[in-house]
Amino acid sequence: MTLQTSGIHHITAFVGDAQRNADFYAGILGLRLVKKTINFDAPEVYHLYFGNEQGAPGTIITFFPWSTGRKGRIGGGQVGVTTYAIPVGSLDFWEQRLATYRIPVTEVSRISESYLSFADYDGLRIELVEREEGAPSTWSFAGVPVEHAIKGFGGAVLYSTNPLKTADTLGHTLGMVRIAEGDGYIRYRSTGNIGNIIDLKATPVPQGAGGTGTVHHIAWRAIDDSEQLEWGILVQSHGYQPTPVQDRQYFNAIYFREEGGILFEIATDPPGFANDEEPDALGLKLMLPSWFEPHRAAIEENLSPFQIREIEVKQG
């Protein structure tokens, strides 16, 4: 059986305060909050989704904000860096914007590309890279014009405790193509035009520790439920034990941990975030699956309110 993922569906991370999280990803990076819901496995915690205007696969970063959670440590068995693609000619805009908000930025080079590297308020590592590929964003917020807006994921940098095993999974299980090597990384490419470049650190990275400021998992795209079932069979044939299909309301998911320690998910493109809200009203209301609706009052009372807002620039 031969399958090829088109790339990243979403990336999910642990963060601290929900308001600070929204301030960074909406107020500074200009992403749209496309869904405000809860962690279905821990309903006392929000699950927030930020992406482009539609929340298209390949643009979605999701968060579990947990203000009392322990601090994590980025390391092996994790996504080390989340890479965002921006339009060609936009690096100067973003360098100036991040400086305005006093976010330290480092310019780095990897496999013949230049990146702006920085961290969010919880320590998650982020990069911006100019790419021709990928549809331009149509979402403008907080002073980020569409001509410079983040398109979605450029890809990710993976930290593995066993890079040889992770490389095998990327190539032989997920169907990615090894296209380059250099600067201590191996580069893979998927078939899509967004979320399609994966850089694997070529040497083992000491095991990280999950918690605030770390990525929980990375999800790869499946066209639909039928293909996801094929993925489950394929993953199992390669020696992994995928979970049963999980209904996440906006996609269906299966999970498995590859041998370098990274938690992989395979998520379906449909039904998407307009499944329970109108497209022009995404993210405005706390959305709950039907089995939690009887408990809405208690759930809402337990969650700290936050708002999507423009961030005032501090003077002096």
From TrEMBL:
SUPFAM superfamilies: Glyoxalase/Bleomycin resistance protein/Dihydroxybiphenyl dioxygenase. InterPro entries: Extradiol_RC_dioxygenase, Glyas_Bleomycin-R_OHBP_Dase, Glyas_Fos-R_dOase_dom, VOC_core. It comes from the Bacteria. GO terms for molecular function: dioxygenase activity. Residues 7-131, 152-269 form the VOC domain. It holds the Pfam family Glyoxalase. Keywords: Dioxygenase, Oxidoreductase. PANTHER family: RING-CLEAVING DIOXYGENASE MHQE-RELATED. This is Ring-cleaving dioxygenase.
